[in-house]
Automatic annotation (TrEMBL), chains A, B, C, D:
PANTHER family: CYCLASE, PTHR34861. Gene3D superfamilies: Putative cyclase (3.50.30.50). It comes from Streptomyces mexicanus. Signal peptide: none annotated. This is Cyclase family protein. It comes from the Bacteria. It holds the Pfam family Cyclase. GO terms for molecular function: arylformamidase activity. InterPro entries: KFase/CYL, KFase_sf. GO terms for biological process: L-tryptophan catabolic process to kynurenine.
Amino acid sequence: MTTLAEFETLCGKVRNWGRWGADDQRGTLNLIDRASLRRGLAAVETGEALSLSMPLQLKGPQDGSGIPGRINPVRTMLGINTPMGPDPAAAYSDDIVVMPLQAATHWDALSHVSWRGRMYHDVAADAVSVAGAARLAIDTFGPVVTRGILLDVARLEGADRLPGGFEVTAAHLDACARDAGIEVRPGDIALVRTGHIQLFHAGDIHGYHTPTPGLGIDTAAWFHEHGVAAAATDTIAFELLPARCPELVLPLHVLCLVMMGMPQGQNFDFEELSRACAADGRYTFLFEATPLPFRCGTGGPINPVAVR
Amino acid sequence: MTTLAEFETLCGKVRNWGRWGADDQRGTLNLIDRASLRRGLAAVETGEALSLSMPLQLKGPQDGSGIPGRINPVRTMLGINTPMGPDPAAAYSDDIVVMPLQAATHWDALSHVSWRGRMYHDVAADAVSVAGAARLAIDTFGPVVTRGILLDVARLEGADRLPGGFEVTAAHLDACARDAGIEVRPGDIALVRTGHIQLFHAGDIHGYHTPTPGLGIDTAAWFHEHGVAAAATDTIAFELLPARCPELVLPLHVLCLVMMGMPQGQNFDFEELSRACAADGRYTFLFEATPLPFRCGTGGPINPVAVR
Amino acid sequence: MTTLAEFETLCGKVRNWGRWGADDQRGTLNLIDRASLRRGLAAVETGEALSLSMPLQLKGPQDGSGIPGRINPVRTMLGINTPMGPDPAAAYSDDIVVMPLQAATHWDALSHVSWRGRMYHDVAADAVSVAGAARLAIDTFGPVVTRGILLDVARLEGADRLPGGFEVTAAHLDACARDAGIEVRPGDIALVRTGHIQLFHAGDIHGYHTPTPGLGIDTAAWFHEHGVAAAATDTIAFELLPARCPELVLPLHVLCLVMMGMPQGQNFDFEELSRACAADGRYTFLFEATPLPFRCGTGGPINPVAVR
Amino acid sequence: MTTLAEFETLCGKVRNWGRWGADDQRGTLNLIDRASLRRGLAAVETGEALSLSMPLQLKGPQDGSGIPGRINPVRTMLGINTPMGPDPAAAYSDDIVVMPLQAATHWDALSHVSWRGRMYHDVAADAVSVAGAARLAIDTFGPVVTRGILLDVARLEGADRLPGGFEVTAAHLDACARDAGIEVRPGDIALVRTGHIQLFHAGDIHGYHTPTPGLGIDTAAWFHEHGVAAAATDTIAFELLPARCPELVLPLHVLCLVMMGMPQGQNFDFEELSRACAADGRYTFLFEATPLPFRCGTGGPINPVAVR
């Protein structure tokens, strides 16, 4: 268990406010540089490209028990073989969707969370209004392309999937990296696999929601020390749920998004990637996950890709 | 002007039905292979990554004059610094959007268009129903990562932007490739710049819509011969609008999507890329544009990235 | 149990096709006339006006187990005390909603159901397309104002609410009318109370869905013989669910909507009305339930009102 | 022209705060009583019922030039003759809509406008949040049934329609009532016709928006003195646009909604009603316009009905 005082100490330890200049909105994404991209390019061997996204569909993970209004995508048709002109020979089909930006696989923007009225970089929380995020919005990310590394904690533990309530610690991340022969470097993006998404695949939406395995509070410092540019998991909440911090529902959200300015990814699917990495022992790859550039959005749907 | 008979002849010339097996749904994306990806990786020098997307916002290009119901994205908030738990110190913001899948920068899925009741690969048009595309949907694309090439026709013509009604021909594409020193190879993705998006940037939505410069009908054969995996333009309709084919509104859509099975990209923004390529004379790059995997979707929003 | 043959016989018995002229789209709503309205006006004594609608909210009856895409209303804000002009003294708030037309209290339009490819009045089912109902749409209803009668079957049975699976028969309707001293006349609208909505009020959405008490198949002939202009219940499906007709999921829907052209109302709330009627023994009233005039809509949300 | 000081004086003159008790949320709707309803019932002679609503459709009055995000209704299909069960003989069609609550014919809720941080009855403006209106929401209206009166200013002026910029004054309302032989009484609802909606019918959306004829600032006192329960016009803004008050965009909104607590109706269509009233000289009727009960909504769509 982590007390509020301990949490506050951690906040101070990982805080990046001011690190990248007065106008910074990109946080640890600033760590992505030519070197980290080069590492990503150099990691490609077979050229295999894998999508790490959930499908976008009505049967997604949003069963109504989470954030009010976070529904699954409702996609309907604007045209179904509708004639393009007077001659019906040529026809078009077209669709429209209603969807929360964080319904399925997505990045949290840095404006997604505030703590005591402040967001990352000491931006006032009221920069988010009915019009969305005037600062720290998802469209400030720009291209997200760098080296990705898979930290397969389920595999480390010899489990198909980690059980609900399993706390992934900095020690686990170290062990995964060591076993995979990876030296984690600034600008890398860390993909932390728990296998928990198997419950979603099996149709157990309730089980997928909670309790979940997930990142524990000490991983914030680990990400900080290694200069990780962003991190993602195959769970709905990124971090351990319920958290081991009596006074906070999602302490790691505050540490990562508000203090470090580090984007979090949720609902990633690492199952196929895990099998591929295990098969040839290569756990690094070129990783691309540029969000749709919603003006003022506090999150962004993605279809992340690992190129091996 | 192209007659219907000439058009039908062209259809036969570029048709790829059956080329990639009985169950194929990916068309020319099958041409992306290890070699094309390698070319893309090899093209990276500076590591500069550029987004080629329009922003997603209420002030987009859909002014209601196009396909009925194709509105601009309406993004609203589900939470605005809403307390996460009993203690309001930690708070979240969250949003939801209504948007056509083809509202801004996107790929057309192969199910987007039918011709005489058939889609690509002779799939019956009624595979698209109220439930969407049971075949040839956007989620069959998978990762789209390969070499991209910029064919900067506006620059070739010495124009800031090509005027409305300017037909881009195969000869223009050849000239662009030659001038840039590019040998177009199977699996490349061709980005054809007209500069027309400048009208959108200037707020002239009506002018952006029509008339547009765009790809002429003979470019289909050019794409076919060079094994281009997909093509995209910086206009709303991809092809010349109005087309020079009295009996067809969008003939190139039929040729590319239905006959070749070649994805088309629209509303790409090549302005920054054009400047970068012109500055150092390098017109090839690693290109990534994996669509959000909407189940049964007939199109998919993307944030395409060029890594130079 | 009703066999398919018996069902087909019933169809022939209640069919109104052609009864109101070649171009009719309003079915039994044609029975509303000056006399029925007069009866409604004459029934008003105390002037008490009661709403019979469910609230429209995220916590509605659509839990995802019904028709795919029938979600609960998601209402979000377009403005929250947003300044109207340069001076922020005057400010506006404004909202937008995503909602199925049949999410809560509503009328089914006559185009909602087809049987063997035909709708009411022998209109071809394909009059409903991606653009909606070209014929028999909800906006053809026009004003719905006439005498309403409450047939309180739960009260007749001495029950707070009828249990799931309870079939309301023509005999029950006769008994309710007799006990209430009502002579049912052409143009009346019949409100049939089961009390089942109490499960919704208690938060038991699943129980509210199925099994339900509801109108049995023989009530179609009763409505037909009495010239009822429309009928409504306080359940999600109007009719008994599951139905006692092995080959049909919703046989009464076919009889009422397709054969008779009689609008059905669902998810009405009669609890307060029932108490008021029981208190003074008056079961007739002026009834108003004009749907929002959605062009081409197959259903229409309403806030029905009884004026006593 | 009205100065800010004059406006403030008017505010004090018409203010109803506290008039109907400490918990009041219904403002002047409280004036609807048995007597006003009786007047409405007594006004019915022929039994003719007329809808006063615009159709709800994609081609509505919201062209994007007004409040950001106020789009026209986008209605799409969830089912198109989709089989109900294993046997496809019975099939359903179903639809879903995205629409602003104030897109077409509607009531403004009392929470729609605030003035210097306060809403009607001194409720703090921050009762409206991302969750909507915790107080003064549209679902507090309940049934709206009373006597309606048509004040046909266009007819008074001998015009088909009043020109843009025409200010309807208290004197006009008096003259209309006098000519029609109406004694305006507490609880009546006033429908003020300008004929301006003819521009909408003619497809001139821009002209429909602005400039409009409309209610001038002195009508607030007129409504107040006569105890009008609500008022509506056949324009988009209810009041004169642009207003003659240099410092305020919509001064009558503040007077009616915030000070008086009087609901305003917009985009009503009085054309058919005007012809009917002129034909037999009867300008009073039973009026019903109960909004859909959106929880926390700041406005509500309606299909108002006049029964003559």
